[in-house]
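SAMPLE LOG
Freezer: B-3
Tube label: C17
Construct: single chain, 257 aa
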Amino acid sequence: MSSRKIEYSIVDGLARMVLSNEANKNALDLQACEEFGVAADAICKDQSVKAILFQARGSIFSVGGDINGFVENKDRVSDHIIAMTTGLHGGLLKIHESNIPFIIAVNGVAGGGGFSLVCNADLAIAKRSAKLVAAYTKSGLTPDGGGTYFLSRLVGRQRAFDIFATNPTLTADQACELGIVSRVVDDAEFDAEVEKLAQMIVDSPPGALSGLKKLLRDSPNATLQKQLDAEANSIAALASTPSTMNRLLAFVGRSKK
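STRUCTURE (predicted):
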């Protein structure tokens, strides 16, 4: 059995990252954070990757940061946490700055860093039985893992403050209503739906979803004029590619029949 806590593979355009720390409820400890950074770097450098799917083994997605590790390193806890966040944040930044769609499959409880991780997704799909809770401030901590960056953009600053400050346990359906996850499926259908969704993203027309991710990622910091120009340049560039033009020609041919 592998001793790795973040396993990854790349097959037919789909990169899988799997959190495999079941014995510790898939906690994000130092090893997991460092391995996340290494895996993200390798995946984002691979030109064949069309989508990244992040999953977790077992019945828990992740309880978040390894509090036991904090206590075990209490005499150097600041250095320990900086080492953890260096790996995790470095990997998240690489994925965010890439144009590769990032899919997260939430198979159970997502707490603390696991909650923040879900907020990073371009598309998050959850089991109906999954629960999500921020939990940081209840322990006297502030969020990491990009939580304060992404959650405020997903739900608004005031609601993000409320969620982080009061730590409600959200059902998957509530998280979907808030926009933290985009799809909720019944538990029995979850694995099949995750595979179907990931394959749909991989099989999308070349450049379309990577271009979409870039436009959506850059839009919060753009003026309307800058975003309109980016949209114009993106659609024009894609339309001029042979693969897209062939699709357009096929569409016109079908519509004339």
